[in-house]
Amino acid sequence: MPGDVDAVGLIASLILIVVALVLSRWNRLGLESSIFTAVLRATVQLLGIGVVLAFIIDEERSLVLSWLWVVAMAVFAARVLSRRAPEIPGLARIGLVAFGATLAVSLAVMFGLGIFPLEARALVPLAGMMVGNSMNASVVTARRVVEELRDKRDEVEARLALGHPSRRAALPYMRAALRTALIPQIETTRAVGLVFLPGAMTGLILAGVDPFDAVLVQAAIMFLILGSVATTTTLIAYGSVGKLFTPDHRLIRLPRPAGG
Amino acid sequence: MPGGPLFEFDRVTVTGSSGVRLSNIELAVPSSGVTALVGPSGSGKSTLLRLCNRLELPTSGTISYRGQPMNDIDPLSLRRQVGMVFQKPVLFAGTVRDNLAEADGVLDDDAYRAVLKRVALGEGFLERPADELSGGEAQRACLARALVASPTALLMDEPTSSLDGAAAHRLEGLAQQLAGEGIPVVWVSHDLDQVTRIADHVVVVIGGAIAYTGTAATAGGSSDPRVLEFLAGENDAG
To answer: Which domain holds residue A130?
Structure first.
């Protein structure tokens, strides 16, 4: 198959990592050890995930294993989210609800309408792309919500002092956070095919699939991801705002991180 | 006190991460005129003010507004009754009209112009971008925004601290005028001269406790050495 990469090929591709290491040293960035550990970690993680995926998506296995894998991804993403924005109480639970709801709706559309066949080979990677992209955008959303409300506390309190309920007082800042999180995804969708060829499509073409078929798959995935990201970030934004105000409409203390 | 107090604090304590900010406050704020909360920086006077519209809550004790425990009043309704002007003029993006509409979007331009007139801003200000106003104009626009909600009391947290002398005097006059129109004003300051000029009642807050209540004229007769020290200007860090 054209996309086959053997061990020698993988080692050969490390030449490019050597280039990155040399550039880091030449520019005195001090990132050599970070690059080295990142590459090592990525290789081990991908090899490990390859073994697990090969086990899970084996057609002989029950689909239950794949669903469990999807649940584990959502739980992991919710934990990552809560670690990135520790100022928001109960964010892991909000994340779990947001990822769960988005997965339920998106996968129902994808498999319910027959866009992809419901089998482990489709379920696991699709859910992975959805959760991964949603997690990144959710982290941006949660961080921006905290930073907007913290940096513009004067404005927020001026709105509260006018008798605005907390959700209304937070709305302009929540919108700014959502725009920041969604614009990169919209730009990615807009530029797809012109500026870059996305990973799934590239992988399929490298694996020998007809380019037009690969394009159709990629288009469906792009729409899935954009819809998922929009849904998840909206749920995260509303959920976060709900936790950053008291029931009697006061903004909770949001101390600046040490050194920030 | 005729008509009962505007705000009544009953054994109010506020504790924060940095320790006790207000300790066992017993205070009745009169329901007329200008009441000045005065004291050195960090004495707790702004915290005392923020308790009056529930931007902060006491750790213990109770606060009443016009005889009704605050816990029994919907906080959003309370905040519309008790307007607030902050230390730094905080205007939202957009024009002055956009800002007034945030307080009440149902009113028409004539009503907004009437409010602007009350704070000595001409009608032309309605269309002005908020970020083009001078400090004094911006603070008066903030006062106008608070007045659009038709408050029955007004809180002003060191509202002249970022203004020049002329703009500060103008705002002081407006506060006195509003008090004369029946809207009691609670004004936080650390400027004794200003307090002497505008306040009908004075509350001196030192170290998170009430050190004196009365008038500016009689404060000098206080037996509390902390009050005398503050009045002598030795205790004020600005």
So the answer is: 62-244
